[in-house]
Amino acid sequence: MKNASLPIKYWGTVGLVFLAFVLYSLGASGSISGYILCASLPYILFDRLSSKDEIVNLMFSPLKLASVLLILGGAVLFYNVKDQLTNFTLLGKFFINSSINYVSLIFYGFSMLYVIFYEVLKERSGGKVSTLDFFIGFFLLCSGVFYSALYLTRSTLIVLIVMLLIYIREYRKIILMLGLIGVIYSGAILIDYFLVIIGPSANNTKDLVVPSNRIESMLFLIRSAVNFNYDFSKTMSNSSLINLLFSLFPFTLVFIIDILFAGISIPFQRGINKSIIYLILLLLALIVCYYQMDFFSIFVLFLLIQVISFKKSIRVLKRLPNTA
To answer: pTM of this prediction?
Structure first.
């Protein structure tokens, strides 16, 4: 059943998508409509649903099938490139025009979606989920961590490790024990890998956290957008979040409202543990959107925002202080 509580926002979102496609038909970059559509589609989808039960029923089963296929596809891909992992020239030819980082980003996106709907499923069923559902998510997350480490994608590696710890938090004592054993027996290897993955940025902590080339690209896009230069193919930054917010300035700044409202909605979840989990997931999704240039990560971020904010608008507004 359609949620008619915010018709203005619904049609405003549809209008923004339509405007982006009109500009594309007039010769503007297709990336503009791509980012806007990825951010808008979750809201348009959730506006047609009336409960979280409908969300799970609609999306979790196909997500499980897609996750299994992704795990198998990742294994096939690894088998084909395992002999080229030390030769980035050959590896680049294998991936042709796409970035090798996209393997890690695909696993991150599906892992985040799985964790989101797994948490909704646990909330709906009182914490009782099937063993099969748990292990699909577990192997998906482990695969994501493995490929992120293999292809040296720092942002998704850190994010997926945190997501894995959230996912298996009920088994934290066993995991802590296994982790300590792993560190004891493989400490030297882990240190060597850590030095490899942080690369030359190890000598410049600031550049490691906030790379200068990323900042320059974001500032260039912001300046161009403020001056209403929509030549997006030449001004696109290395951050998908900044690309979205300034792709059609000032109209696309409206998406900041969704991000802020999701943050306000977090304390109104059922229980402190659920609030903490959603807060961490939101921060992780923002990190990936900041550090990576990717359409799928934008879709995942705003789908998470819709899950967090779903049916919270009336509850939040009632509890806000009356400033009138």
So the answer is: 0.79
